[in-house]
Design brief:
It is a single chain. By secondary structure, the chain is α/β, with parallel strands linked by helices. Helix content is about 30%, strand content about 20%. The strands form three sheets. The chain has a four-stranded parallel sheet, sandwiched between helices. It has a two-stranded antiparallel sheet with strand order 3-4. A two-stranded antiparallel ribbon has the order 6-7. β6 and β7 form a beta hairpin. α1 packs across α2. The longest helix is centred in the middle third of the chain and has 18 residues. The two termini are about 20 Å apart. It binds iron/sulfur cluster.
Length: about 170
């Protein structure tokens, strides 16, 4: 599923693309920044009001997660990404995550991914809606090597391994 429609078509497209078996009262993970929490690296949010409205209309319980802050990083914080590859490589120990200044924040990214994965397992989460392009939460595309690479972020890779179905929330960038 791609949430790429813009403007007034977006809400209808999101609603139509949601899993048909979503149950009222079902917990779903949502990137905290997509819920409007100011947890991004620049201290801002990525509120996606249409997605939230569609999920609330289905009666889902929205569980906010910000893996980078769960991993101990502050907001704001220096932007960071792998020098190459994607989150699957980081999750598997084949790549690191570095800030622009070269500080190694791999441990924080992995810690956050593990905590989100454990939460998903504990709650029996089937679906997650995470912020596209983020090196943690990206689903189809992630920042890597100074550009964008195909593939998931670190937390998304951890959730996919668990069997959670992850959908990309709208990107504001
Ligand atoms: S994309 Fe994920 S890691 Fe980045 S601010 Fe949003 S919730 Fe946190």
């Amino acid at each position: 599923m791609e949430f790429k429609t813009t403007g007034s078509d977006y809400h209808a497209a999101v609603d139509a693309a949601l899993p048909s078996d979503l149950q009222p009262g079902e917990p779903v993970l949502v990137s905290a920044c997509v819920l409007g929490q100011e947890v991004r690296y620049n201290g801002g949010s990525n509120l996606d009001a249409e997605l939230l409205a569609a999920l609330r209309a289905r009666g889902c319980i929205l569980v906010p997660v910000c893996p980078e802050m769960l991993g101990g990083l502050p907001a704001p914080r220096p932007p960071a990404q792998p020098p190459g590859g994607d989150g699957r490589d980081v999750w598997a120990g084949r790549a690191r995550v570095l800030t622009d200044a070269g500080a190694d924040v791999t441990g924080a990214f992995l810690s956050g991914a593990r905590q989100v994965r454990e939460l998903a397992a504990r709650l029996g989460v089937r679906y997650a809606f995470l912020k596209e392009r983020s090196p943690s939460c990206g689903v189809n595309r992630t920042h890597s090597g100074g550009g964008l690479a195909d593939g998931p972020g670190v937390t998304t890779a951890a959730l996919l391994e668990l069997g959670v179905v992850v959908f990309p929330a709208r990107s504001s960038s």
